[in-house]
Amino acid sequence: MLEVFRDYLKLSKRGRNYVAICPFHSDSHPSLSVSVEKQVWRCFVCNVEGLVEYFVAKIENLSINEAKQLIATKYNLDQQQVIIQPKFITLFF
């Protein structure tokens, strides 16, 4: 999962998580956090969160299924390894 985010963001380690400038709003301080342990991400300013496929769908302007296919192809995974979770995590950290 972290490899996917590294392809889109400049990540910095902060404690157990990684932080970055959010690409979804005007951001000057890292407000997007990625939890590798919990396999979720969240921007604490624009309150957008989810799993890796939702991030890719949002940044690439794709459907969730298209994002899942892109991740599987780009990272040489079986599509079954890219899990779609319809309801996103609301308790992040």
TrEMBL record:
- Does Zinc-finger show up as a keyword for this record? yes
Asked whether the keyword Metal-binding is assigned, the reply is yes
Any idea which GO molecular function terms this record carries? DNA binding; DNA-directed RNA polymerase activity; zinc ion binding
One cellular-component annotation, GO: cytoplasm
Q: Which residues form the Zinc finger CHC2-type domain?
A: 18-72
Q: List, in alphabetical order, the GO biological process terms annotated in this UniProt record.
A: DNA replication, synthesis of primer
* Pfam families associated with the record: Zn_ribbon_DnaG
Q: What are the UniProt keywords, alphabetically? A: Metal-binding, Zinc, Zinc-finger
Known InterPro entries for this protein?
Answer: DNA_primase_Znf_CHC2, DnaG_primase, Znf_CHC2
In Swiss-Prot or TrEMBL terms, this protein is called: Zinc finger CHC2-type domain-containing protein
